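Page 37, continued from 36.
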């Protein structure tokens, strides 16, 4: 019976250790992190630069992206083009994870595209690139706005103190 409890305790301890460093459970270290460490940048991308454009993230910090928005234009000599914005993010020494966003065409102005996407993306490094589907664009230019906050990955997350319960006398 003692061996079962020891195995269970060890399993829970290891699960907790893995969960503490898992990006899915990354939380602001305190409630002021999103305010104090707010992050917002605009990355211009265009058809003349089909390379990934790096987003600067300070050393020792992890970017938690909460929203991405796009505004721009794309034109083609063909029937149709769908601009796509690719995000390439890495965590630690892990491989790059790609996210694809396809802005919506304007209902009133042909060739203009907009999009605003709430998301959750964790990044120690982040790059943004244009892409497209359909016919090759003759023109494509976008402003990509990335909004979120930074978390210090070199400091362990703080545990909130237990609430104080008043005792009746």
């Amino acid at each position: 019976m003692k061996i079962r409890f020891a195995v269970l305790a060890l399993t829970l301890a290891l699960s907790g250790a893995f969960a503490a460093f898992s990006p899915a459970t990354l939380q602001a270290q305190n409630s002021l992190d999103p305010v104090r460490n707010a992050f917002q940048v605009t990355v211009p991308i265009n058809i003349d630069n089909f390379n990934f454009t790096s987003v600067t993230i300070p050393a020792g910090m992890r970017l938690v992206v909460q929203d991405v928005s796009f505004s721009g234009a794309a034109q083609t000599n063909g029937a149709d083009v769908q601009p796509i914005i690719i995000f390439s993010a890495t965590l630690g020494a892990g491989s790059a994870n790609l996210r694809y966003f396809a802005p919506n065409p304007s209902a009133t102005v042909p060739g203009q595209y907009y999009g605003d996407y709430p998301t959750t993306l964790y990044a120690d490094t982040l790059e943004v690139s244009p892409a497209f589907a359909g016919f090759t664009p003759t023109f494509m230019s976008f402003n990509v706005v990335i909004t979120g906050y930074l978390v210090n990955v070199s400091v362990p997350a703080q545990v909130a103190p237990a609430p104080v319960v008043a005792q009746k006398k």
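Helices lie at 2-21, 33-36. Flag for discussion at group meeting. The CA atoms of residues 63 and 150 lie 5 Å apart.
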